Amino acid sequence: MPGSIEPLDLCNVQVPYYFRCPISLELMRDPVTVSTGQTYDRTSIESWAATGNTTCPVTRAPLSDFTLIPNHTLRRLIQDWCVANRAFGIERIPTPKQPAEPGMVRSLLNQASTVSNPFSVRHSALVRLKGLARESEKNRSVICSHEAREILMRILFSDVSSGSSELSQEALAVLVMFQLTESECTEIGSDSNRVVYLSELLFHSSIDVRVNSASLIETVLAGMRSSDLRAEICNVDEIFAGVTDILKNLSSYPRALRIGVRALFALCLLKQTRHKAVQAGAAETLIDRLTDLDKCDAERALATIELLCRIPSGCSAFASHALTVPLLVKTILRISDRATEYAAGALMALCSESEQSQKDAVSAGVLTQLLLLVQSDCTDRAKRKAQMLLKLLRDSWPEDSIGNSDDFACSEIVPF
């Protein structure tokens, strides 16, 4: 490492140059040594290699391989230096978890997939794989590089009547942490037995199994191009009932809410089976859960509400819920541009079908919200929906609602 590098000031303390990564010039948190003998921070050298570089950044010598050997001695020296300078506000760097070794991953996958192995050995291997996959994206990448998805799918859909159902559930827990290819999604979705099995898991006694099943169903639906195959999956009544029940009864589990909303949205993208969602009680459940969701999930929930409002049974279900219209009105301009657009679209559909919804919207203050919307920086599509809704509600406005409003005297909606 060049001695000419100026000392780095950290909390007004000079950091020794040999504690600094030659690439980032920052204090190393996880020093590793490459084949040339040079030491770098793991994150920096991995980024260097990921951009296509095949030489050592310092020596410019070709790297014979990209094996990274943890420099435990240097890491401990850095940690001791941090402790010695604690009085200056420097925090000790925690000992990093080392990424999974490819050899160990291969061994675990082999143990899990070998049918002749005892149940305890296979189960233990899957549990260890699950733990590794949860630790980091790097571990998931290493696991994926050993055809793990194919192995896990084979275990998941093996003959559960043979007493290996626990193995299937553990394989499912690992599989949902990876993104499946289109061919893998098609392989699952085109097999009715596999789809039925996943639908049955939606009613399992274990919360994790139910949520993992919903997650895989959403992944499969999102990863397939064939509308015919998606229709076959969506025609399984139990799937709508299972996903809706997750949203209805597992609202205290953030992951269950997130996965449930994503799965329901994927199911409702297909118009011909949306009535099944309504029959399963999705409309009432979405309204009841809407205020429990974060921004991204709320957007999906509102998009699903708008989709269901496009069919008569969906409109009726939402219109019959006392909180639907007030919540949609309140959502406008509160969450995001997308959420506003979906809420305005759902209100447009409801008010087009129900005079009571029109009255409820006006009572909830929709006029003020829509006038603010058309003057905001929201999307053009949202503004068009707002203008159409204002025209639709024209006969429901209080007589003095605009004439006495100085705030909206110059609004482009005034002439309507």
Q: Can you give keywords for this protein?
A:
416 residues; mainly alpha; Herpes Virus-1; Leucine-rich Repeat Variant; 4 domains; 3-stranded antiparallel β-sheet; two-stranded antiparallel sheet; disordered C terminus
Q: What's the structural domain tally?
A: 4
The best one-word shape is globular
Relative helix content: 55-70%
The biggest beta sheet reads: 3 strands, antiparallel
Q: What can you tell me about this protein's structure?
A:
This protein folds into four domains: 9-88, Zinc/RING finger domain, C3HC4 (zinc finger) (Herpes Virus-1, 2-Layer Sandwich), CATH 3.30.40.10; 98-178; 180-319, Leucine-rich Repeat Variant (Alpha Horseshoe), CATH 1.25.10; 322-395, no CATH class. It is 58% helix and 3% strand. It contains 22 helices and five strands. Strand 3 (31-33) and strand 4 (39-41) form a beta hairpin.
Could you give the topology of this structure?
Elements: E1 8-10, E2 13-15, E3 31-33, E4 39-41, H1 42-50, E5 69-70, H2 72-84, H3 102-113, H4 119-135, H5 137-144, H6 148-156, H7 165-175, H8 182-189, H9 192-201, H10 207-223, H11 227-234, H12 237-249, H13 254-268, H14 274-279, H15 282-289, H16 295-308, H17 312-319, H18 324-331, H19 337-353, H20 355-363, H21 366-374, H22 380-392
Helix pairs in contact: 3-4, 4-5, 4-7, 6-7, 7-10, 8-10, 9-10, 10-13, 12-13, 12-15, 13-16, 16-19, 18-19, 19-20, 19-22, 21-22
Sum this structure up briefly:
A hairpin with a 5-residue loop joins strand 3 (31-33) and strand 4 (39-41). The protein has a 3-stranded antiparallel sheet with strand order 4-3-5.
